[in-house]
Amino acid sequence: MASQAAPNVPVYSGNDLKSTTDDALAPYLTTLPQPYTFAQDHSKTNVRFILGYSAVIIAGFTFYADRKLGWEATQSTWVLAAVASYFILNTFLTYWIWAVEAGEVFRGTRKSGETISISSSCKKHSPLYKIRVQYKSSSSKILQEKEAEAPFTTWFSANGAFHPEPLRQWLANEVEVLRLAAKERK
């Protein structure tokens, strides 16, 4: 079997560069050597899916009812309640994404109870990838809180090929627990 090379990312698309980098964090943090491995927490993503799919189901149901029953039959209170529910769910979903998740791309817990939360951002037309890391003990005491930034060119080549090792080295230089894991890996 030949290994598949990662597809090239358009180097002038900040969104694609950020998404590819964000997607590389979870595989890295969940495959660190023991005892540094983080188990990813999907609870915020699950809430997002529940809200989003509930709104889609309501929209699909009202569309189906309108299509099968006609306009006059769908001017009842249950359709108005469904439409109001749809807008309430979407409003709460928007709030959830912007205020609760707030750019978080990874949340994980070690077996010892420590948690790490990584949020990322990239300004429009900027070549810099910014992260905010919060590392807490099992008693919720903040062990490390740091903001860092680096150019995408550190781990993307000129043709858009992603190289994960420079990203891992940069993260290890910025986050103490990842530095310890990198020493363990060597």
TrEMBL record:
It comes from the Eukaryota. Keywords: Endoplasmic reticulum, Membrane, Transmembrane, Transmembrane helix. Pfam families: SPC25 (PF06703). It is a multi-pass membrane protein. GO terms for biological process: protein targeting to ER; signal peptide processing. It is found in: Endoplasmic reticulum membrane. The chain crosses the membrane at residues 47-65, 77-98. One of its GO terms (cellular component) is signal peptidase complex. Component of the signal peptidase complex (SPC) which catalyzes the cleavage of N-terminal signal sequences from nascent proteins as they are translocated into the lumen of the endoplasmic reticulum. Enhances the enzymatic activity of SPC and facilitates the interactions between different components of the translocation site. Belongs to the SPCS2 family. This is Signal peptidase complex subunit 2. It comes from Aspergillus wentii DTO 134E9.
